[in-house]
Structures are given as structure tokens and as C-alpha cells.
């Protein structure tokens, strides 16, 4: 399998040969930041298009199909529209917090985005508490949402933000517990190691069989809730709260929330594919060497993106099937159902690991 | 949540109904889409049977319609969209109402279909044409009976067939004369309609 670290090492050595080490690291950091931002924008566009198409298909219609072939340019048109719009300034809002909020949300999702393992050797952030780091920085987004609701000085955003706070903090528990379940299996929190291990021994969802599958399903539910997407979209709840916490935003400030929503979806899916479906690790079936060879020939990035978009599809399937829940239903779903189940599941996984029942 | 059920039966019930929902949407995902891409598929676009495009009066191949000018449809119409102009003619010494013009104002019609339901002779119906845009409101007032058309004779129920032939002959000659007359009188409307149709298309 192709190792991306060859390229990064070559680049590092090249830079070292012309500039001192601090400058080389600076240049590399800027390059990485540019790459992250570019990928961020590109994936946002891809996801928005995908969402609109898939939503259309689930509702027995075609989705956007007028701008460009199959509506491919529709999202670009939307992005340019959004870029041109004025960012309005309202009286009696907390201007500082109001303007700060979208950046919190975007920064949080970009930080999480940087943790994804794209290929063997192609990690942007990789250290021994990777999963822990992901959980921590992804929660920063909720601060942005709360600030947006508070800073807008308007009742709908405030209600939306409070709901979002209650919801995200609740579902964070399920996410944390499912991740803990998987860490129990892998024995490491470092993302690169988690993937290496799966490349060597098989995907976690197969290795951990029953508890891993339960954890995966719970993650699918809680992940949708984390991204504030339907059926858990009641922080936005356009039929009740106009647009929830981003009601008072316009132009690119609104655009940041929009981007972050879709990128959070991608990130949630990317993390699911990393810890359950093996990240960039190709599919191996023990005994079929020819098959395994073919699978190895497919580059890791393709595996990673394929799995991630598969999980994104699962998320969208869930979203466009179920109607929006009520806030009390959401909280009782989490506290009375998902959390006890994931705790029991954690115990189950611990037993499986203790008795070496995994594959 | 499920107050009436115990914890576990509620949970499994919920999982089951979610699975049913997921199955339904997945099936929907693969069904052919119902979206009509209208201007492109104009040729093969087929509206559904009950679509109410605009009111028409079907004519058979002998240029005959079934309207007896009773005016029930006009009375039924809540929007005054129908205007039945009739005249009295004498046929066989009997006075009879005959349709002159059947005016239908598409612009004020609300497609309630009361007229069609009320008509005792099934003389009018809705067709599937919906390209109704015109540049002038007066073009929305349409004459539904074709120029020179006349009311179709109903197949007579069994009656003493003795006195009939003469009457039928007389009628037939009237019927023959009428279309010629009408053609001579109104070549204009026909071409008008044709150009209008072109403009609409
Ligand atoms: S269309 Fe029907 S209801 Fe109307 S005048 Fe003719 S026969 Fe009577
Ligand atoms: S459909 Fe209704 S409104 Fe239109 S002409 Fe018939 S009765 Fe009048």
C-alpha cells in the first residue's frame, strides 16, 4: 500500500535543504492549513450536492437538475450567491459574540476535520490521544452555537441554541461511550494506530462483531444528533423557529454555519469509517489472496472516501426517513435508551475483549 | 415516550417501526422518479387521466357534438365562465333550441368541473392541454363548438318506423346544407384558432 509519508518526508527534506528548520515547519504548516481549507470547501460543495440529490431521490423526485448537467453547478451558484450577500449588522445584538460565533463553529469542525486519516501516512493531526482530541474539539462547536443564539438577541435563535446545547451535550455521551467501546477493542486512541491495526487484523466492525455492530448503530443515531441534522434538527427546526440559532445571520456568516453543518456530517461519517470500518484499510478476506491483492491495489484515499460517503449515505437515509422528534423525546431517547444501551454494550465489549472472543 | 408499553416492548416496537420506515424510503429511493421535466419531454408528456386542463367539447368525425344548448352547465358554473348562446329553430314543425356559440372563459374558470358533472348529455369534458399562456386576456375566451358543427342525432329508441323516413330525409338535407353554409360564413375563426394554436406552441 502506498505510504503518503514518503511524499511529506521528501518535501520536508527539500525545504530543510533551502531554509532553516523553523521556516520549513512554518511553510509546511501554512501548506497544510491551505490544504485543509481547500478540502473543506470542496467537500462542503460535494456534500451539499449529494444531500440535495439524495433527498430528492428519497422523496421520489430528481433533485437539482437545471444548472449544468444534472444540476452539478447548482451548488456553485448557491455558494456565489452567498458570497455576494451583505452581512447585515443589527442593532441591540451583542455584535462581538454575534460575529464570533460562526468562527467558533467552523474552527471546531476544521480541527476535527484535520484529524481524519486520509491515507497511510497522510494524517494532519496524529498523536496518542487522537480520539480524545476529536471529542474535545468537536464540542467547541456547541459554544459557537450557544453564542450565536445569545448574541442574536432574538427569541428564536435563543430557543434553538438552548435546544442545541441540551441535545449536543446529551448525545456527546453516547458518542463518547461508543468510542470508548471501540477503544476497548483497539487498545489505542491514536488514529493512525487504530487504522494500522485494522489494516492488519480486519475491520473493527467485523472483529468486534455484536458489540461493535450495536456501537455502530448507536453511533449512527448519535452522530446525526451531533450534527444537528434531522430527525434531530430541532435546533434549526425551520417550521417552528424559522432557522433556529442562525436565524439572524446572513451572507457568509450564515454560510459558515451551513458549511459547518455539512462538514460535521462528513467528519462524523469519517470518524465512523475510521473506527468501525477501517479508515483507509482495504477489505481483506482471510484466505482469498488474489482478492486481497486486488483490494490492496486500490489506493487508501479511495477506500477512505468510499467508506465515508457510504456512512454519509446512511446518515442521509436516516435523516430523510424519520420526522423531527420533540425535545422531550430526544432527551428521553438519549438518557433512557441510547445511554443505558451503550453502557451495557461497553460491558459486553469488555467481556468480549477479556475472553478474547473477538476475531 | 411509550407510556402505555413497558420499556423493552416499547424499545423493540420503536426499532421495528424505524426499520419499516427505512425500508420504505429505500424502496422509494430506487423507484422511478415522478418528476416531469416539462419543456424537454413535451413530446411524450402524458398528464394523468383526471387532469383538468381546459374545457372542451368533443366532436365526432362528422363534426357533431352532443350539446343540446340546455344551459345547465352555464347555470352550474360558479364563476360565470360559460356562456351558451342558443337560438330557436323550427324542425319538423317543432320548435327546438340549437346551439350557436358555446363560449368558455378559461381565464375565470377554476376547474371545479361542476359543469362537466352537470351536463346531462356528456357534451363537455376536460382535456389535458395545459399550455394556456397567451398575451391577451381576450384570447382566453374560447368557442368550444367547432364552426359548422351541429348536434349529433341520438340513436332513436324503438319507435314506430313508419313516419320517420321522410323526416330523416328532410333532416339530412338540412344537415348537409348547414355545414356548407357555416363554412362559407366563417372561414375566419378557423384560421384564427390555428394561428393561436401556433402561437401557443
Ligand atoms: S354542455 Fe351540456 S349542460 Fe351545457 S348546454 Fe350543452 S348539453 Fe346543456
Ligand atoms: S369547471 Fe367550474 S368554473 Fe370552470 S367552467 Fe366548469 S363550472 Fe365553470
The largest sheet of chain B is: 3 strands, antiparallel
Overall tally of domains of chain B: 2
**CATH uppermost class of the largest domain in chain B:** Alpha Beta
The total of helices of chain B stands at: 5
* Average pLDDT for all residues of chain B: 75
Largest interface: A-B, 19 and 16 residues
Q: Uncertain regions of chain B: pLDDT < 50 for 5+ in a row?
A: 161-201
SS element count, helices of chain A: 15
| Poorly predicted residue ranges of chain A | none
Percent of residues in helices of chain A:
over 70%
Account of the 3D structure:
The complex is a heterodimer of chains A (359) and B (201). With 359 residues, chain A is mainly α. Chain A has one domain. Chain A has 15 helices and no strands. In chain A, helix 12 crosses helix 14 (300-319). With 201 residues, chain B is an alpha+beta fold. In chain B, the strands form three sheets. In chain B, strands 3-4-6 form a three-stranded antiparallel beta sheet. In chain B, strands 1-5 form a two-stranded antiparallel sheet. Chain B has a two-stranded parallel sheet with strand order 2-7. Chain B is elongated and about 85 Å long. In chain B, a hairpin with a 2-residue loop joins strand 3 (82-91) and strand 4 (94-105). The model of chain B is unreliable at 161-201 (pLDDT under 50). Chain B contains five helices and seven strands. The structure holds iron/sulfur cluster (2 copies). Residues 67-73, 84, 118-119, 121, 123-124 of chain B line the site of one iron/sulfur cluster.
Amino acid at each position: 500500500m502506498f505510504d503518503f509519508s514518503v511524499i511529506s518526508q521528501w518535501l520536508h527534506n527539500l525545504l530543510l535543504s533551502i531554509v532553516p528548520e523553523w521556516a520549513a515547519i512554518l511553510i509546511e504548516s501554512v501548506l497544510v492549513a491551505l490544504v485543509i481549507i481547500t478540502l473543506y470547501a470542496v467537500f462542503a460543495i460535494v456534500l451539499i450536492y449529494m444531500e440535495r440529490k439524495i433527498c430528492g431521490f428519497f422523496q421520489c423526485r430528481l433533485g437539482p437538475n437545471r444548472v449544468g448537467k444534472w444540476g452539478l453547478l447548482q451548488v456553485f451558484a448557491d455558494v456565489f450567491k452567498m458570497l455576494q450577500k451583505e452581512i447585515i449588522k443589527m442593532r441591540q445584538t451583542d455584535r462581538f459574540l454575534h460575529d464570533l460565533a460562526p468562527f467558533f463553529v467552523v474552527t471546531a469542525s476544521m480541527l476535527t476535520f484535520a484529524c481524519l486519516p486520509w491515507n497511510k501516512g497522510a494524517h494532519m493531526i496524529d498523536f496518542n490521544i487522537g480520539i480524545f482530541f476529536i471529542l474535545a474539539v468537536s464540542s467547541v462547536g456547541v459554544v459557537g452555537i450557544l453564542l450565536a443564539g445569545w448574541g442574536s438577541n432574538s427569541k428564536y435563535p435563543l430557543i434553538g441554541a438552548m435546544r442545541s446545547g441540551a441535545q449536543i451535550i446529551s448525545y456527546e455521551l453516547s458518542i463518547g461511550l461508543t468510542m470508548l467501546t471501540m477503544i476497548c477493542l483497539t487498545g489505542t486512541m491514536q488514529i493512525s494506530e487504530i487504522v494500522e491495526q485494522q489494516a492488519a487484523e480486519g475491520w473493527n466492525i467485523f472483529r468486534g462483531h455484536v458489540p461493535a455492530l450495536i456501537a455502530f448503530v448507536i453511533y449512527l443515531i448519535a452522530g446525526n444528533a451531533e450534527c444537528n441534522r434531522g430527525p434531530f434538527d430541532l435546533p434549526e427546526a425551520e417550521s417552528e423557529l424559522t432557522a433556529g440559532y442562525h436565524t439572524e445571520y446572513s451572507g457568509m456568516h450564515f454560510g459558515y454555519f451551513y458549511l459547518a453543518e455539512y462538514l460535521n456530517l462528513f467528519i462524523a461519517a469519517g470518524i465512523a469509517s475510521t473506527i468501525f470500518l477501517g479508515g483507509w484499510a482495504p477489505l481483506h478476506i482471510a484466505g482469498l489472496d488474489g482478492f486481497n491483492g486486488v483490494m490492496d491495489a486500490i489506493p487508501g484515499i479511495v477506500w477512505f472516501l468510499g467508506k465515508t460517503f457510504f456512512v454519509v449515505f446512511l446518515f442521509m437515509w436516516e435523516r430523510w426517513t424519520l420526522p423531527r422528534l420533540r425535545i422531550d423525546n430526544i432527551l428521553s431517547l438519549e438518557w433512557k435508551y441510547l445511554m443505558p444501551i451503550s453502557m451495557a454494550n461497553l460491558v459486553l465489549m469488555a467481556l468480549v475483549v477479556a475472553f478474547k472472543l473477538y476475531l | 415516550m411509550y407510556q402505555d408499553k413497558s420499556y423493552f416492548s416499547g424499545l423493540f416496537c420503536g426499532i421495528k417501526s424505524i426499520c419499516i420506515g427505512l425500508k420504505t424510503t429505500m424502496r422509494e429511493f430506487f423507484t422511478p422518479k415522478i418528476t416531469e421535466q416539462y419543456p424537454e419531454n413535451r413530446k411524450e408528456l402524458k398528464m394523468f387521466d383526471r387532469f383538468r386542463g381546459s374545457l372542451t367539447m368533443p366532436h365526432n368525425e362528422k363534426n357533431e357534438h352532443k350539446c343540446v344548448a340546455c344551459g345547465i352547465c352555464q347555470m352550474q358554473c360558479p364563476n360565470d365562465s360559460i356562456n351558451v348562446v342558443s337560438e330557436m329553430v323550427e324542425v319538423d314543425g317543432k320548435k327546438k333550441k340549437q346551439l350557436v356559440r358555446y363560449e368558455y372563459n378559461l381565464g375565470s374558470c377554476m376547474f371545479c368541473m361542476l359543469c362537466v358533472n352537470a351536463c346531462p348529455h356528456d357534451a363537455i369534458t376536460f382535456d389535458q392541454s395545459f399550455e394556456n399562456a397567451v398575451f391577451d386576456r381576450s384570447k382566453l375566451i374560447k368557442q368550444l363548438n367547432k364552426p359548422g358543427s351541429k348536434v349529433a342525432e341520438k340513436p332513436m329508441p324503438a319507435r314506430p318506423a313508419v313516419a320517420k323516413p321522410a323526416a330523416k330525409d328532410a333532416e339530412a338535407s338540412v344537415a348537409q346544407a348547414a355545414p356548407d353554409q357555416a363554412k362559407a360564413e366563417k372561414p375566419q375563426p378557423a384560421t384564427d384558432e390555428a394561428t393561436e394554436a401556433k402561437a401557443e406552441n
